[in-house]
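Objective 1b: paired records.
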Amino acid sequence: MSESLDIDIPRHLPAITLPNTVLFPQVILPLHIFEERYQQMVRECLETDRIFAVLTLKEKPDEDDMPHLEPPYPIASAGIIRACQDLENGHSNLIVQGLCRIRVEGILQEEPYRKISIRPLNSDATGSSEADLPALRSRLLGGLHRKQRLGAPITQEIMQFLKEVKDPEVVADLVAFSLCPDITERLALLANLNVGERLRQLIRMTEKEIAELLLRSQLQGGLDDEDIDKN
């Protein structure tokens, strides 16, 4: 399966490294650019192919990461600038769309901004029949609908949008990006190249959250959250 929207990804990319941010293919990520180095990066991206990498900053660097002040996780995504709004103070607001998963092969430069060598990564459906992925998609959406009915903060707009997306792979990445709050789990989902396994991983997470919501409801005894101390 190809995630790159039929766009050739250069093997050398400018990169922005952000804490607690994981970009997935297909999804839309708004970014506010204020650092001078990234302002320059954006200007030069807009003059060329508009593509750069969004890397996730490691919170606990490994020993091998020590030469780099901002060590990234090795799996990330390339994105393309779909819209840019220049602000009077020199800052800018971007709308970035994820293109494909990438592996960071090396850091080429840090000044004036980070540039990396990358290898694009494609998903696969090994171990899944043609009918498996649509069935897993339906199972995941069913679980999310049940979570919503149990009080999880999932808007009707998100559910309706996911329902309209027929590609199981895109659904998996949208759910991982939009509804998975734990960054460790998001990084694991980004690194998992098997679409079927990715969907099953999301289903397991959803079923665990449903069980927790059911237990919470039983313990509350029908009381609202603000009245839980009365139980």
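Objective 1b, second protein:
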Amino acid sequence: MKAALAQIFPRLADVPANLALHERSVNQAVAGGAELVVFPELSLTGYGLMESVPDVAIQLDSPTMRDLRQLSRAAAIVVGFVEEAPGARFYNSAAFVDRGEIVHVHRKVHLPTHGLFDEGRHFAAGDRIRAFDTRFGRAGMLICRDFWHLGPAYVLAAQQIDLLLVSSASPGRGATGGDGRFQSTASVDLLGDVYSRSFGVHVLHANRVGCEEGVTFTGASEAFGPAGNRLARARDLDEDLVFVDVDPDARRTARIHMPFQRDERPHLILRELQRALAERTQPGY
């Protein structure tokens, strides 16, 4: 299977313009042979929405989502959007859409609210981390900060995923100077290597680019094979469309050579987590 990482520069709070950008990107990816196109976090809306969150939110049965469902007949897509749920609750969500159907929706679990991040003020936090079946294998989705925490990836791996699909709007932080890279980008490199190697999965990570409200997003979208090998990398700071071959035989080979998942003991981990959490809640005096 060939996938594409669509490293785009969405326009802030302009859903119609961004929907057209998705259509162009998917058409270009399909012309290159891609069957799956992964877009960045909040690809339909831009990131720095703040009080505009309700204005750009869509429900799963909205006309915009119907347009995306139609677009998915050309290729499966992972798209980021603001989801409006009952009770006027708004989520930073990603949907896997394929062959005209919404296959799965992931709501961002970890909402950074520090420094330049303010998500906790505007979004509700997701409370599920679920794997799902696709025609390309069993998959799991994470959104940006979810990827930086070890727990969500481990929970997905325990559900025996083949593909870890990550959508990000990651700003550049900590310019290193010498090689022109950002420390934040280097951290994502390490996480992609570790997760792919430890779980024997393909990691497809799409990050956005562009300047928005004074924040620069770095791009550098990447794909890793199940042995920890980088398969593709997009440009820093510029829009790009990167193709990657996702070979299921490579997963089998990696899992034979490095049977980390076979030897995992999730029940032991669960038991010890329960013990540790119980001890944490005991009075410290």
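The longest strand covers residues 76-85. The radius of gyration is 19 Å.
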